[in-house]
Design a protein that fits this description.
This protein is mostly helical. The chain has helices at about 5-20, 30-40, 40-45, 55, 70-75, 85-90, 100-105, 110-125, 135-145, 150-170, and strands at about 65, 95.
């Protein structure tokens, strides 16, 4: 299976975002505490869905139980503008009851269904070893010398905008 460039890029960003949320400065695992806090901020975070989707998608971490690997594997081959309708994908997973209010908030947004589809794919990749970020480091190194296409430039711009926002919130820049 070939993962689309869109998901290859976001996979690393999502894993890095979760990694940043996991430990405090003393090395204590506080992921659940930070995720709970982030979920309370969802009304604000929805404004970042287009610019930093990997940051917002973390609110759904541990919220999916996947029931159709085939459907999810197919989703990972698609580019962002090729996503299926949300309702046609919901057979591929069960969402935890605590996600209901978050899903309702996201559904109110113009790109809500698109975002939920992307969040499901990121969470699916996070738990599948064959999709782990480490596996494509060599591919990324080989691509460093190639010119960026428009989608990759946009993805990098979104990532940079998200990083700038985090710095404005008082966090250190990930570099």
């Amino acid at each position: 299976m070939n993962i689309s460039p869109y998901f290859r890029h976001l996979r690393s960003a999502y894993a890095a975002e979760l990694d940043d949320l996991t430990f405090d400065s003393e090395g204590q695992n506080i992921l659940d505490k930070r995720l709970t806090q982030r979920r309370k901020e969802m009304d604000f975070l929805v404004h970042m869905m287009e610019t930093s989707p990997e940051m917002v998608a973390t609110v759904f971490h541990k919220g999916f139980r996947f029931t159709s690997n085939a459907a999810m594997d197919h989703l990972l081959t698609l580019e962002a503008d090729e996503f299926p309708e949300w309702d046609s994908l919901t057979h591929a997973f069960v969402m935890a009851p605590w996600t209901e209010a978050l899903v309702a908030t996201v559904h109110q947004q113009p790109m809500g269904d698109w975002f939920l589809t992307m969040a499901a794919a990121l969470e699916y990749m996070f738990y599948k070893p064959e999709h782990a970020p480490v596996s494509d480091t060599a591919d990324e190194d080989e691509q460093d010398d190639e010119p960026l296409d428009e989608e990759e430039r946009e993805a990098k711009a979104r990532e940079e905008a998200g990083a700038d926002w985090m710095v404005e919130q008082g966090f250190d820049r990930k570099e």
